[in-house]
Amino acid sequence: MMAKSKLMQELSVDELMDELNFFIPEIQREYVWGHNVREILSVFCEDLIDAKESTSTNKNLGDRITELSKEGKFKEIKKLVESAETSNPLNIGFLYSYQPNYRMEHFPESDLYKDVYLIDGQQRLTTLFILLFYFSIKEKKKEKFLTLFRFNHSLESIAFDYRVRHLTHNFFIDFIYNVNILPDFDHISETTWFLSEYANDPTVIAVLKALEIIKLHFEGDDNNENYFDFLKNDIKFWHFKTEKTDQGEELYITMNSRGKQLEDNETLRAKLFEKTDKIEHLEWSERWEQWQDFFWRNRKLNADSNNADDGFNEFLRCIAALEAYKLGDQDFLNELEPIYSTRLVKYLSLGIIKRYFKSLEFLYKNRDLFKKQYEYALWVDKCFETINEIFFEQKTNWFIDYNNPNRATERRRMVLLWSIIDYTSSFSNRNIELDKIFRFLRVYWIRYNNFIRGVSNIKDRIAEEKKLGVWSTHISEDEKVKHKFFNKINNGEELRILESAIWKLEDHPLNLNGYQVQNINISHLVDFENKLNVSVINNIYDKFVSLFSHEKGSKKLNTILLYYGFYAMKRTPNYYDNWDFSSWRRIIRDIDSNEDTFHNFFEDYDGNNLAEIFEAKKIEFLTKNKETINAAKKEIECSDLLTCIKYYSLVVDDLWPKGRYIADSHYVPNKRLTTFEEWALFNTKGDFRGYGHKEFCFIMDQTHKNPIRYLKKLVKEL
Predict the structure, then answer these.
(1) Main-chain dihedrals φ then ψ at residue 378, nearest 5 degrees
(2) Which residues, in sequence order, are CB contacts of 320 under 8 Å at separation 6+?
(3) How many CB atoms are located within 10 Å of the residue 416 CB?
(4) Residues 49 and 189 in one domain
(5) Which pLDDT score, from 0 to 100, does residue 382 have?
(6) Residue 6, in any domain of the structure
(7) Core-most of 114, 276, 319, 621, by most CB within 10 Å?
(8) Could you tell me which residue ranges the GmrSD restriction endonucleases N-terminal domain spans (predicted)?
(9) What rounded mean pLDDT belongs to the chain?
(10) Which whole number is the average pLDDT over 434-440?
(11) Is residue 5 part of a domain?
């Protein structure tokens, strides 16, 4: 029997069953691997086949070395020995168990064996149990199976049992007793011993599905002999024993509230441990638990799924793909193709995970310390919320072709996370580089909000930023002038004050999102070339917020801007002119204006004088056009849309009753205010569907039946 004193040991199924009776407690979830979600059972079978082939090769090693020594081929002997040293038995992760405070019944010689509840590892151990039974029948070794698991049909006992779930327990007893030859595995649900109630048991259904998958992998293979002994002796677990019931139940609750069943990271851990010395396994096991706990602490609370392993799994996929990118590997996956642990282990080692994890941990641990240095730094929390969403929502295929223009979302996330993780990991003493690292994070947070997704140049850009400084690169004129300004400031305290003011202005939703507006975030409001101080920036912020407390300006502002120039964006359909006056991200940056419409207005605006500006602009317009107005009879002479709209703005109370669109349509007008209106002008919500449009002449009639007379009156009163 194995030693009882060690808390954790690497053990085979044979060694585990030599001392213990395993029970699956009722609180555990059902067996689910048979459903083969993400092909987990198929991959498990393939890993077993690979491990078996490796083991079989090594068993012939002695004979081969003898032959080679006779031939004097010592270099080949050396290669064989080295390959044998790296070919260890397959370790498939951790089993956690605890001893209940009572003894189970119906075990022969029960005083020789210890009853334990399985906390974690149920899916793997159940799968091995099914595989061992399958191969015991296939290889005519059923008696060995019955002995290994101490099966007693009359007492209905077995050393690996779902006893606390009576229906599942009964199925396994009937199943093992009645299946004696390979054809007995076929159509089990149609046999006389298969009770109708079994069809309602989720674990039973999953076991039947698992058998179908197992038969697909092994039934027709003539080279799979002696799998029973291989599975019994050469497949290893790390078994962690918790002796006390209360400790075991606490560990169970913690692990399962964290979502810790057999997750991707456990499979990867088993593969990575194979590459390390066994004396280091306990140390790395403790580190792995710390990594999992980190994602447990930072999981999404109150979400539909708060599985901490989701975050850890995604982190591992992310950094494995980063390593693949840095190595120049272009073995890309299709969009929906799963990322298996076999791909991750190709690029990861425990040391690599440790290095990248320390970088991520540093960022999380020090964000509050960085924020304390600033009057405004709310962006830090929003940035970390986004990072959490990327990790925990698991919607990124990190191995897709990053040159594919159709994969914009994945590429955008790669630029953010790969850049900050790689940059942060490059510093040996991150504590003294705190400001530099978080300023770098700010740059990439802005780029993320600008939807920057140029992955292929990450490596070169990061190398330059490491060498020349955080503000050494730029991807837009906006960044260029801003970074140039920051680099000129030598006083640390002054720099923090200015950064805080700039961040606050830059973080307004209309400014922060620079996507499809030339990556402009602040230079449309701030002139970095002129003398600039915090009072100027704060004044700009106050003015801007007074106009846009939310992401939509007022109707009055829409109308006033008409007097500074035409600023609308042309929209579809193309068979008539459809002008969008609602795109505020474009409007404030003057993307569609040739006259710096918003910029000139903002220069005149002091934060509280909209009414005065409107009145002054109306007087200016009336004065300029008084002769045209006085000469008008039925219609006012006019040759352009902007002037026409201005006339309407003088005679209606609300130029935008339906929406912020104006359509110069293909309909004949019912009535005209100006000679420009060859086609009817409509105010719309964006199109002519439904009742979301109204012709301007009818809007005008609600206020003035004789608009020409009213305009002449306004001119006379000047």
Answers:
(1) -65, -20
(2) 339, 343, 344, 346, 347, 348, 398
(3) 22
(4) yes
(5) 97
(6) no
(7) 319
(8) 17-273
(9) 87
(10) 97
(11) no
